[in-house]
Write a structure and sequence with these properties.
Layout (H helix, E strand, L loop, with lengths): L1 H15 L2 H9 L3 H24 L4 H36 L3 H8 L5 H22 L7 E2 H10 L13 H14 L3 E6 L5 E5 L1 H10 L4 E4 L11 E4 L4 H6 L8 E4 L5 H10 L5 E3 L20 E3 L21 E4 L20 E4 L5 E2 L1 H5 L6 E5 L6 E2 L13 E5 L6 E2 L11 E5 L24 E5 L20 E5 L18
Parallel strand pairs: 4-5, 5-6, 6-7, 7-8, 8-9, 9-10, 10-12, 11-13, 12-14, 13-15, 14-16, 16-17, 17-18
Antiparallel strand pairs: 1-3, 2-3
Length: about 500
Amino acid sequence: MAENAYCIAGKIVELLGSLIYEELSSAWGIQSDLKKLECIVLAIKAVLLDAEEKQESDHRLNHWLGQLKDVLNDVENVLDEFQNQILQKEVLKRCRSTRKKVGYFFSGSNPLVFHFEMARKIKGIRERVDDISDIKDFVFNNLLLIQFWMAHGILQSPKDENLELEDVGNLYIKELLSRSFFQDVEQENILYFTFKMHDLIHDLSLSIAKRECSVVTKKSALAIEVCHLSFLENGQEITTQLEKSSKIQTIIFQTDQSMSLLETCFSRFKYLRVLDLKNSSFEVLPSSIGSLKHLRYLDLSFNHIIKQLPDSICKLHSLRTLLLENCHNLERLPKGIGDIIRLKLFIVTTKHTCLSENAVGCLSSLRSLWIWRCVNLKCVFEGMEERRLTYLRTLVVGNCPSLTSLTLSIKHLTALETLIIRDCKELSLMEVAGEEDNQDLKLSLQNLMFFRLPKLEVLPQWLQGFANTLQLLWIGGCENLTALPDWLTRLKSL
């Protein structure tokens, strides 16, 4: 069944991509309708071959394929009507009879009538496809999805030495978008965008991964080979279910969890790669987390009562992603945080008054650093030695109302591509260290945003160091910046 459906889908895609269809669909005003239809068929075609191999052992998938084949047959019939219309138009061109031409105008073949009829049928097909699949609306974020892929080793190492794994991840996402696997893209800002997975791809993914992925409830039964868990409930029944599992690589908690359950997970699942504890409500993370030597992704965001991280977290030498966003009561970062030598993405909210060399400057592998909503923070990078953070590509400092000092040595941030500073009402930026002679600096900054900085009165001179690289300069809500400097015109790439 799937093979036949695949052949039908291939023929439909070939027809829709032909030049004559493009020209005539444009002439008849149904080009956008056929383009949407092509996207639907492409998405279906992409999953059919793999689905064929699994349909015999999965009755739900077999039924799903049957429904899809019916839809594809209807698509083919609609295109037959379209092709017949093309033939009628060709015959009419050769005909000299006025009577036939008048009859054609008042028939269902009239371009206006045909447009409405075709649009109605195509809409009906799209609605049937929606009915076949449920509406799954999980919103992905490209920034975090790439980190998740990296944690599981999904991304291939780039052949181009100028590319990072994050760049490879973005290429993957763009490819999936071009094939309509992902949809509903929304650009949130210059750093990231959101999107949803196509429903058909979602269904197929669930079917393929059903033995490896499981949602944990009090009534669920975990397969021995399960690797990825999402917890919806808590309690002793949950802990009991975990006794036979040993291959867990991902844990996502979607409900409050007890300390005993956390301890059980930390002691049992030594090969854990991803641990998502966002929206938790515990004051102290168990020190046994230090035993998770393979952990690469840790999300503690939106825990509003956690006060400190155990020093044992510094033993997580493989950790690449640490998310502490909106942890407003976090009093300090561990002194040995520099031992997390592979950390690439760090988002932090803390009660610290100063993030110095020992707090963030020692994280030499960082590619992306977000210092966010630190209401007590007064200084960042103070006392930091030169030639630190030389791999940093993205720096975001925002919603820090007490911040007065941002001590950056621009000449050493040679990899920095994006700098965003926003909502820091006491920051003037005059303390950022630039260079008098910056013509020979090899700098990389491409995107720069200053937003709601009321004490910013003049643009810093060090901006001239990015004359050959800066492509986007966005300034807003800086009411005391009354004039732009003459040298701004020398920024060649803006």
